[in-house]
Amino acid sequence: MTGRFIPHAVLTLAVLLFALPIWIAIAGSTQDSAVIARGELSLIPDLAGLGVYRDVLLHGSAGAGPVWRALLVSAGMALVIALGKIALSLPSAYAVTFFRFPFRMTAFWLIFLTLMLPVEVRLIPTFQVMSNLDLINSFTGLTLPLVASATATLLFRQTFLAIPDELVEAARMDGAGPLRFLRDILIPVSGANIAALFVILFVYGWNQYLWPLLVATDPKLDTVVIGIVKMIGLDTATEWNKVMATAVLALIPPVAVVLLMQRWFVKGLTEGDK
Amino acid sequence: MAGLRLEGLRKSFGQNEILKGVDLTLADGEMLVIVGASGCGKSTLLRLVAGLETPTAGRILIDGRDVTRLDPSERDIAMVFQNYALYPHMSVFENMAYGLKIRGLPKAGIRAKVDAASALLGLDALLDRKPRQLSGGQRQRVAMGRAIVRDPKLFLFDEPLSNLDAKLRVQMRGEIRRLQRRLKVTSLYVTHDQVEAMTLGDRLLVMHQGVPVQLATPTEVFERPADTYVAGFIGSPAMNLLPGTLGRNGTAVSLEGTEVGLGTRRYALPDGHGVILGIRPEHVALDPSGREWPVEVVELLGSETLIHAGRTGAATLTLRLANGAPVGEAVRVSFPPEHLHLFDRATGLRLDPA
């Protein structure tokens, strides 16, 4: 028993460390804003205050629009980014892995190089490009620059490299052309990896802050993350219960995605599904 | 006639010449086994025929049609791979049907062909399973089924039994042979296993360092090996190869002072010519009047006994005896002339009597 005590203590502590802030947000969202501001937050939720969720969803708060809209923008953005990245990196990884063409490795290293230049680094030039294309304050401008992805290309390349040559050859003998092979063999075989990547990319897209802040000033394009920040007013009184309710709402979709795809996620990251 | 013809086939990878010119003709329905140690070019040869590699020089003709530049799928061939190469996400049925589906066969036609092949291979009950739910032998059968349903002009086997355990290998070996006989499809079979080579092939092609060394029936390869490489490669334990010199007007060989008579044979070569005398372990005879060899190791194999004799640093001799033969510190043996093989010491090639 003593041998198990320390591990358990450490684990319990870790769980508390992670869970407590979330619990405080949930409990806080149901309480009066003024009470929270005074620092007298209770850890027991006040069930009478649950109406705040309906309130923020439909009407939002001072300084920010209704949360349902922001959630929709966030979900749209995260989906477009995740699916767009997969749609783009799957064929590019396919090309650099399975085909021999001039400057193949150059192409691969150029893709690789962009790993060192994330959006945050190329913020100003990217903004300039979007501005020239007249894409400021549009959904396209919000998502497009985040779609190109070296990470996903690299991950797919690794997956494809692990596919036995004989499988490729068997498909060639069966008469499968390149596109057929991609559709009938490669994508199904890499299914778990695609699912795992989708989870990671969805969360990545959902958490975007800097770029949406810069490129979309139209409140209609506010993501939920931006919405939370806008709710915290600098001079007006902040409605903390609404901020916390929005934070809890913002938490649900990525958690749902992770839980729903957990089985695939783990499978994709651990085994190769071969 | 759905034969196969290779003309001056060569393949280099960069500076490295893997295949140094192969000419070969296979009759319709013939099964040719290509055998050799790893790196001898046998797999490259098969991959060239399959169309998975492009030859540096030479032509490949299947059924009289030049397919050298054609895509694998246009060659009307089917291949069975060593690691089965089944599509892991498809059921057994889908695995077998995939090639036919791509060719645009109607559903009913595909069904009929797959059903016929699976009945032949005893896979009927497994059609809905995924490859990972199958045993090694079953997977290999599916891989063969995938080849059979295509109804190809040529079967290619790339060491198909290497991943199976010994017992299953013997069973599958028999199955492949029966199937090939029954379907009468011209086949190329690559293996490094000499037992597979001896039992499966109508003819054998022994390859060594990118060159075909001998092309003959298994019996002939065994009884009249073309050179010392083939002599040492085919047969287990390997043939004893003892260096000596020709003497007595080409009718005897002198081995480290002992003279071995060649019976009625006479070789038209000058006395003192360097030769290698070959004799299989099972042909060495115990003979009280023969030369004495010190025994080094005795291996009891149950049905037979292997004796390794000889002095350290000098030529060694392996004997294969029926069980119960008395073995002491030394054995006295003689070499019956009718079982002797003679090779040229300089070239390694077989010598034939005049």
UniProtKB/TrEMBL annotation, chain A:
Topology in membrane: Multi-pass membrane protein
Entry keyword annotation includes Glycoprotein: no
SUPFAM superfamilies, per the entry: MetI-like
UniProt cross-references to Pfam families, sorted A to Z: BPD_transp_1
Transmembrane segments: 67-89, 101-119, 139-164, 185-206, 243-261
Coiled-coil spans in chain: none
InterPro entries in UniProt: MetI-like, MetI-like_sf
Alphabetical UniProt keywords: Cell inner membrane, Cell membrane, Membrane, Transmembrane, Transmembrane helix, Transport
Location (main, coarse): membrane
Compartment(s): Cell inner membrane; Cell membrane
Location of the ABC transmembrane type-1 domain: 71-261
Domain of life: Bacteria
NCBIfam families in the record: PRK10973.1
Family of the protein in this entry: Belongs to the binding-protein-dependent transport system permease family.
Function: Part of the ABC transporter complex UgpBAEC involved in sn-glycerol-3-phosphate (G3P) import. Probably responsible for the translocation of the substrate across the membrane.
Entry-linked PANTHER family: ABC TRANSPORTER PERMEASE PROTEIN MG189-RELATED-RELATED, SN-GLYCEROL-3-PHOSPHATE TRANSPORT SYSTEM PERMEASE PROTEIN UGPE
Subunit structure: The complex is composed of two ATP-binding proteins (UgpC), two transmembrane proteins (UgpA and UgpE) and a solute-binding protein (UgpB).
Protein name from the UniProt record: sn-glycerol-3-phosphate transport system permease protein UgpE
Organism: Methylobacterium aerolatum
Gene name of this polypeptide: ugpE
From TrEMBL, chain B:
Species for this entry: Methylobacterium aerolatum
Organism placement in taxonomy: Bacteria, Pseudomonadati, Pseudomonadota, Alphaproteobacteria, Hyphomicrobiales
Homology family: Belongs to the ABC transporter superfamily.
One annotated GO molecular function: ATP binding
Pfam families noted in UniProt: ABC_tran (PF00005), OB_MalK (PF17912)
Record NCBIfam families: PRK11650.1 (NF008653)
Taxonomic superkingdom: Bacteria
CDD domains: ABC_MalK_N (cd03301)
Domain ABC transporter intervals: 4-234
Keywords: Acyltransferase, ATP-binding, Cell inner membrane, Cell membrane, Membrane, Nucleotide-binding, Sugar transport, Transferase, Translocase, Transport
Protein name per Swiss-Prot or TrEMBL: Sn-glycerol 3-phosphate transport system ATP-binding protein
